[in-house]
Amino acid sequence: ETRISGDNRVMQNPYLASFHIIFHKLHNILVEELQKIRSNESDKWLYDEARKINIAVMQNRDVNLSGLAQE
Fold first, then answer.
1. What is each CA distance from 31 to 20, 34, 56, in whole angstroms?
2. Given 9, 17, 40, 45, which residue has the most CB atoms within 10 angstroms?
3. 27 alpha carbon, distance to own chain's centre
4. Are 11 and 17 in contact (CB under 8 A)?
5. Which pTM value belongs to this model?
6. How far apart are alpha carbons 34 and 51 in whole angstroms?
7. DSSP string, 54-69
8. pLDDT digits (tens, 9 = 90+) for 35-66
9. Using 50, 70 and 90 to split pLDDT, how confident is the model at 4?
């Protein structure tokens, strides 16, 4: 089964593929949770807010893995 992604390398690198899947699923979970607490918001708002949170999680992971985080 072929998966489609915004990155052509996704199926060449299992590490990249696993992170793509994890963050894709996290985004969907975030949308569902946001919808529970903000049910009157538009789909675009839910998508955008979940995207912001997802990006922050990715950035936090990158900073902590790079050793740049202050202890």
1. 17, 5, 15
2. 17
3. 5
4. yes
5. 0.73
6. 11
7. HHHHHHHHHHHHHT-S
8. 999 999 999 999 999 999 999 998 888 777 77
9. low
